[in-house]
């Protein structure tokens, strides 16, 4: 019994040592992770799917947009006049498209030739085909020779035309130099004549100098007063930028009862400012003049100015009288304005009477003017001769400018014709190569590769014909939106050249421009006339569908990020939209109608292949290989592999850790301990 107790103690000591020794290894294997798989079912359905780029944008009100031809050529039609109304897609103007139609005819002929070649291969007739192919080769060679002769003739014509044009330019330049020398002599003669005549009238002018000086000072004082009146009036009406926000606190109450008077006062004030600037400039240029006619003209101009000021003051008074008393526009303030502008009106009327009096005083100097008239006969003769010569010079200079422009246009037209002929030769040479290969193929006999090649040629020529027809759009200038033609820079017969900046200006008060910023990845996916869906923050439940009309390739770098700007011109119609309003814009990159779609979460990848778990007729789910198309982030288009109505399993896997007692109990360490102790099935 004592021996058994000792043996039992020894066994437990061995177990404790073993447990300590293998603790770490056992710790690493005693936990296991169990994955729990849940799943939901969905069906493949037919629906429209779009691949979009979502960006933020901002709106800006624009009243006008200018458009121009992207093609350079001669204008043959202008279908609208200035201030005509156009609808969207109306053709405003057209270029001469004869060359484009010729290119279409050539493309159609090339397509017919490739179709004939294909038909000949399909309906093989050896002798006739060989003869026809040989004739095609010889005919194309003949066309190449003729085209090369025409090309050489064009080069000779270019040289001769340029030499003749340069000779005409040189002749005009010499004529201009001669005219300038004659003008210089005439100017000296005129100067001498004027000096002689001025000496005769100096005494008489001295007697009238006081009156003229007084008139000049009167003009200066009147302009100073006018400037003060304009400044004081602008501080109330804020027409200029400097005073635009001065009366923001009560501007809406100042004319609340009569906005018409305020608008009329503003119009008159703008005209007065323009009149004042023109008269002041004229006065500064003539402030030292002694010519009574000029002074009378300045006085008459001042008279017109003050007539306008009086009208403006009357409308301004009406504006003030139409004000509404508020906390920011008190009755005292309104009365102060009334008093001030009544005073300005009275002062302006007084000044107008003074101007009339000064004009009357100066008109008494008629005897001096008559004296001058009698002494300027010689001056007029020299002056008229000088003016005539200057007119001739101006015409010569205009002729030179026109000639140089025609010279430049001639070179461009010649180069275009030469390039066109070079293209013709290149096309013929390419056709010759095709005909020679066709001839050789016919001699060797047709096979499947030849027939397929002929089909490919037909397809390529069809694409070429379609592209050539599409280029016709460049010869028409279409209205991108409904509006009014404000201005047209060109007319019928104009040749549009590369350095011309000739536009059609369209106005539309409902025109709105939305600007969006795109990064380097998105900008390459966007093109002109791409469909967009715009949602304004102010109209969260309404989608505006328009198209991109401008892409600016100039990079914008901010904080190390490069972006590019695109714009959408749209019509806001009856919606209340202001500049600065923000938008969420979805650019439709790809759109598929009636596509088979499934939830994107159902798609699985296995060995670089895309599969779906599709339910079989027996109710089990089998992995099915599919081909996918576009995705909108939620659903994905299925091109092949699944039909509408198929049931798809969407797996959702979760996991948790648990104590793997069986694994622990089966470790080598525990087996050893059990074997050594003879416990729980171990051998003794």
Outline the structure in words.
The protein contains 14 helices and 21 strands. It starts with a helix and ends in a 7-residue tail after the last helix. It is flat, with a radius of gyration of 46 Å. The model is unreliable at 23-35, 655-665 and 669-684 (pLDDT under 50). With 684 residues, it is an alpha+beta fold.
Number of strands: 21
Radius of gyration: 46 Å
| Shape assignment | flat
| Largest sheet: number of strands, sense, barrel closure | 9 strands, antiparallel
Structural class: alpha+beta
Oligomer kind: single chain
First-residue to last-residue Cα separation? 18 Å
- Unreliable stretches (pLDDT < 50, length at least 5) are 23-35, 655-665, 669-684
Number of helices: 14
Indicate the mean pLDDT: 81
Q: What share of the residues does DSSP label as strand, in percent?
A: 15-25%
Helix content: 55-70%
Structure keywords:
684 residues; 9-stranded antiparallel sheet; 5-stranded antiparallel sheet; flat
């Amino acid at each position: 019994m004592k021996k058994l107790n000792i043996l039992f103690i020894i066994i437990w000591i061995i177990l404790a040592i073993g447990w300590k020794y293998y603790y770490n290894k056992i710790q690493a294997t005693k936990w296991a992770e169990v994955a729990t798989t849940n799943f939901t079912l969905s069906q493949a359905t037919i629906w429209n799917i779009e691949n979009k780029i979502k960006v933020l944008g901002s709106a800006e009100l624009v009243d006008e947009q200018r458009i121009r031809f992207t093609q350079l050529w001669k204008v043959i039609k202008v279908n609208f006049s200035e201030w005509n109304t156009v609808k969207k897609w109306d053709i405003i103007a057209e270029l001469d498209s004869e060359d484009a139609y010729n290119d279409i005819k050539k493309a159609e002929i090339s397509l017919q030739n490739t179709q004939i070649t294909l038909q000949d291969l399909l309906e093989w007739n050896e002798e006739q085909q060989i003869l026809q192919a040989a004739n095609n080769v010889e005919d194309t060679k003949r066309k190449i020779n003729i085209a090369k002769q025409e090309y050489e003739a064009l080069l000779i014509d270019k040289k001769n035309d340029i030499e003749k044009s340069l000779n005409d330019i040189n002749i005009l330049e010499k004529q201009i130099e001669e005219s300038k020398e004659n003008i210089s002599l005439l100017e000296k003669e005129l100067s001498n004549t004027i000096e002689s005549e001025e000496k005769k009238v100096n005494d008489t002018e001295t007697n009238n100098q006081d009156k003229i000086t007084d008139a000049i000072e009167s003009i200066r004082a009147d302009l100073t007063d006018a400037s003060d009146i304009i400044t004081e009036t602008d501080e109330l009406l804020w027409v200029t930028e400097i005073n635009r926000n001065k009366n923001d606190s009560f501007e809406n109450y100042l004319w609340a009862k009569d906005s018409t008077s305020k608008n009329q006062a503003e119009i008159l004030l703008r005209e007065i400012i323009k009149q004042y600037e023109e008269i002041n400039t004229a006065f500064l240029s003539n402030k030292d003049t002694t010519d009574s006619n000029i002074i009378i003209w300045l006085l008459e101009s001042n008279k017109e100015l003050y007539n306008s000021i009086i009208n403006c003051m009357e409308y301004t008074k009406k504006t003030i009288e139409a004000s509404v008393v508020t906390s920011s526009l008190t009755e005292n303030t309104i009365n102060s304005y009334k008093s001030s502008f009544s005073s300005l009106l009275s002062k302006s009327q007084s000044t107008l009477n003074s101007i009339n009096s000064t004009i009357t005083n100066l008109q008494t100097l008629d005897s001096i003017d008559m004296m001058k008239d009698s002494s300027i006969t010689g001056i007029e003769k020299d002056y008229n001769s000088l003016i005539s010569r200057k007119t001739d010079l101006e015409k010569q200079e205009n002729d030179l400018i026109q000639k140089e422009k025609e010279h430049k246009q001639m070179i461009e037209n010649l180069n275009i014709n030469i390039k066109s002929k070079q293209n013709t030769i290149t096309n013929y040479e390419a056709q010759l190569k095709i005909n020679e290969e066709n001839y050789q193929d016919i001699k060797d006999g047709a096979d499947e590769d030849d027939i397929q090649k002929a089909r490919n040629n037909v397809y390529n020529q069809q694409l070429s014909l379609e592209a050539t027809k599409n280029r016709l759009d460049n010869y028409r200038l279409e209205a991108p939106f409904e509006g009014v033609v404000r201005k047209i820079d060109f007319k019928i017969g104009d040749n549009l050249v590369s350095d011309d900046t000739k536009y059609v200006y369209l106005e539309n008060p409902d025109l709105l421009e939305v600007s969006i910023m795109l990064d380097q990845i998105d900008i390459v996916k966007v093109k002109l006339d791409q469909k967009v869906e715009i949602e304004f923050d102010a109209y969260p439940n309404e989608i505006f569908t328009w198209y991109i009309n401008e892409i600016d390739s100039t990079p914008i770098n901010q904080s190390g990020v490069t972006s590019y700007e695109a714009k959408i011109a749209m019509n806001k119609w009856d919606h209340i939209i202001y500049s600065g309003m923000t938008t969420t814009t979805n650019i439709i990159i790809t759109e598929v109608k009636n596509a088979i779609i499934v939830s994107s979460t159902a798609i699985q990848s296995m060995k670089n292949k895309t599969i779906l778990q599709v339910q079989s007729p027996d109710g089990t789910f089998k992995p099915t290989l599919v081909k996918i198309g576009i995705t909108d982030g939620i659903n994905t288009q299925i091109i092949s592999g699944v039909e509408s109505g198929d049931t798809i399993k969407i797996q959702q896997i979760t996991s948790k850790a648990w104590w793997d007692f069986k694994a622990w109990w089966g470790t080598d360490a525990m087996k050893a301990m059990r074997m050594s102790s003879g416990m729980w099935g171990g051998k003794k």
